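U., I forgot to send this yesterday:
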Amino acid sequence: MVPGGFHQATISCAGEERVFLKNRKGFVKYALRYGYDLVPVYTFGEGDLMANAQGGWGWRFALNNIGIPAVLPYGCSWLPIFPRRGVELVTVIGPPVKLPQIKEPTKEQVAEHHARYLAEVKKLFERTKTMTAASADRNLQVW
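Result:
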């Protein structure tokens, strides 16, 4: 599951490490309802695979909300729809965030466990960002 969806792709930017999770809570509600744990996963270098136009966030997010991806990627110079070559990708997986099963979780319960998950994603990022030279000096931007 990729909680950031189209918005995650829209905000991707070469040279930046970004996740679109700040207000994405539906996956947490679902996990609480069915008693699933959440496993933090992050891939370093993903934003470096393609250049992506920046700005115009309001109209681009509006398009995303109606199912039209507002991503304008550009990869290889000789065939822009292909990702750039030579980009180091490293995927890291953290320990599961244990969640209780709550048949009808309240907004407060969802917010509490969303905050726990987001904190674990941030910890995972900080603990492992030196695994690639490109990401060692970057900070995680949470949108």
